[in-house]
Amino acid sequence: MALLNKKLNVDYIKRSINPFDFYSHELPGAPLKKHDWNDGGLCPFHADNSTGSFRVNLTTGAFKCFACGIAGSDVIAFIMALYGLQFAEALAKLADDWGLAW
Ligand SMILES: [Zn+2]
């Protein structure tokens, strides 16, 4: 039962956070449009000094850097990688940051 609830929470959190809103918040200054793969501006995972290598997907929340090689499939993976959090900690941070009860 606990596992089922956890799964529902993950789906709920992913559904509740729009990737465009999420990356607009996490990557201030990035020239984001609305859908699919976008230029994410400077990569937050390595000492980046020119844009063009860091991409974010505003449909799925996935991210990828062609310079340092980091990649993930959704906003939860982004939060885990950026802040060095475990999965459950990342969910809690997202719920807290985005005002989601769970
Ligand atoms: Zn990078």
Strand order of the largest sheet: 1-2-3-4
The SS-based structural class is alpha+beta
Please give the alpha-carbon distance between the first and last residues.
15 Å
Which CATH class applies here?
Answer: Alpha Beta
CATH topology: DNA Primase, Chain A
CATH superfamily: Zinc finger, CHC2-typedomain
Cα-based radius of gyration, to the nearest Å: 14 Å
The SSE order reads HHEEEEHH
CATH architecture: Alpha-Beta Complex
Q: Would you report the number of β strands?
A: 4
Low-pLDDT stretches are: none
Give the overall shape, derived from the CA principal axes.
globular
* Number of DSSP helical runs: 4
Number of domains: 1
The profile of the biggest β sheet is: 4 strands, antiparallel
**Residue share in helices?**
40-55%
Give the rounded overall mean pLDDT: 92
* Associated small molecules: zinc ion
Descriptive overview:
By secondary structure, the chain is of the alpha+beta class. It has one domain: DNA Primase, Chain A (Alpha-Beta Complex), CATH 3.90.580.10. The protein has 4 helices and 4 strands, in the order ααββββαα. It has a 4-stranded antiparallel beta sheet with strand order 1-2-3-4. α3 crosses α4. The longest helix has 15 residues. 21% of the residues are buried. The mean pLDDT is 92. Bound molecules: zinc ion.
